[in-house]
């Protein structure tokens, strides 16, 4: 559900922007979810390490369901964004919870197969996301993109409640609930959450609503920096009771895994949100059709994720797959920056396959890295910080990409069609460009849009390339041979 929710809005976003006249908010439809997912990722990692894994997991699903209900019933862009933010809180604990449950029950050597399967399921969900988003938008309503989570969530809650054994970390199993909660880092979270939110707000508003040098933007950045310093200080002060114990980040494999996840996650989410916009605006595809046009990338991710997981279980080493992932993903993303309005389908299909192969090789491997180098007691925190890197990367870079896209598009309009009012074009949304401008100006507007998208795609290209630095500092550890005490 959480994977589907990350992509389902991608193909529905153009229609949502049309209904609410809110193209300027399109980045928030993805970033609001990713923002709260990022802000709550580490807190849930801590909760999983001190409370019942099963019941914490169930709470996250319930929160996700509430957010989905609000999104489906939204009567304005602001309410939709609020619902996405609430759903993101639940989403923060769903993916990491599933992996932590696996860490408690599956031997390390066989976990690459499981994480590969998780990657495949995430890929299938990503396939269903754009397709369902397009189908609902074209044939029913975009609101069903969110209502669909309600029955799925209900079934999941029932299955987990009755079939999953209760699992409590051994080091807190003898403590009372009050004693366990006393180990939660409330002070650290009081600094961490507003730190992330302040930074993302500054990136969202800077250069659009307010100038980069305005008092408001500078204050937000300064607030974020001060709170980040406070959070780091609190972590060193609290040591083992910290949200992120310093000993974890001192391991170079963990630091490399977080950097790799940050860069590659940011690249992935940027492409997932902006490629459908290109299909709908430039190729005049419907929302459903644009979902189908995304299949080459996502199917490639699914197939290669399973293949890579099996290879790592057999061979033992994950680092080479991460290095290949960075190199191939950078090539695939770079090819997408060459798109033009007349690019044939053979090219954009091939470009997506190259990108999907690259992503499939390495997106899941940072999770294996932290589970290999950390003790079982630290796996929950390690898993959470890797997923945090991925989600905060998506949140930050999506906002930067939105800012870049909007400014570039407005500038391009001034060059190609100076007589067209940029405000009217922006308000029209991606699927409304044809109706928003006179026939004589359509070609210029489409070229301006195309160039804005391809310029924006330079961001994920660069990020995919630099992700190799994270892989380069990783230790070459094998998943074979290490033993954990499993909890059932």
UniProtKB/TrEMBL annotation:
The annotated topology with respect to the bilayer is: Multi-pass membrane protein
Q: Where is the Major facilitator superfamily (MFS) profile domain?
A: 1-479
What Pfam families does the record point to? MFS_1
Pull one GO CC term from this UniProt entry: plasma membrane
Please give the InterPro entries that the UniProt record associates with this protein.
MFS (IPR011701), MFS_dom (IPR020846), MFS_trans_sf (IPR036259)
Q: Which segments cross the bilayer?
A: 55-74, 86-106, 112-132, 144-164, 184-205, 217-237, 257-279, 291-312, 318-336, 348-367, 379-401, 453-474
List the GO molecular function terms: transmembrane transporter activity
Q: Which domain of life is it from?
A: Eukaryota
Indicate where this protein resides in the cell: Membrane
Name this protein carries in UniProt: Efflux pump roqT
* Native organism: Lasiodiplodia theobromae
